[in-house]
Amino acid sequence: MIKKSFLLLIKLYQIFISPYLGNNCRFYPSCSNYAIQAIEKHGVILGIKMSIIRVLRCNPWGGSGVDMVRDKDVKN
Fold first, then answer.
1. Does 39 reside within a domain?
2. Which of 19, 42, 44 is nearest to 30 (CA)?
3. Rounded to a whole number, what is the distance in angstroms from the first to the last CA of the chain?
4. For residue 45, what is the DSSP state?
5. Number of domains in the chain
6. What is the DSSP letter of 69?
7. At what angle do helices 31-42 and 44-57 cross, to 10 degrees?
8. Beta-strand (E) ranges in 1-76?
9. Residue 46 lies in a domain
10. What pairs with residue 66 in β-bridges?
11. Range of the domain at 9
């Protein structure tokens, strides 16, 4: 239930807010799509943590390019 609620909030952001902000994300997939994938793959708590870190990296000094959500079994 909580997972679906967070996913719904992100979808609502994508539909109602994101179109007015423009395409500004430096990464692929976009930060909101990354958040959806992270929550679906890793659950709400870790997915939100990963999403926050990703948004903080989305700045002129934080890099850019393809940054996919890693699988659960991949270790750094």
1. yes
2. 19
3. 30
4. H
5. 1
6. P
7. 150
8. 27-28, 65-66
9. yes
10. 28
11. 1-66
pTM equals: 0.87
- Residue 71 domain-assigned? no
Long-range contacts, 34-42 (Cβ 8 Å, 24+)? 34/67, 34/69, 35/10, 36/7, 36/10, 36/11, 37/68, 37/69, 38/69, 39/3, 39/6, 39/7, 39/10, 40/3, 40/7, 41/69, 41/71, 41/72, 42/69, 42/72
Q: Could you tell me which of 36, 44, 45 has the C-alpha nearest to residue 69?
A: 36
Summarised one tens digit per residue, pLDDT across range 13-51 is 999 999 998 888 889 999 999 999 999 999 999 999 999
What's the pLDDT band for 74 if we cut at 50, 70, 90? low
For residue 74, tell me if it sits in a domain: no
Length of the chain, in residues: 76
Phi–psi pair at 43, nearest 5 degrees: 90, 175
Which two structure tokens, joined as six digits, stand for 17? 């807010």
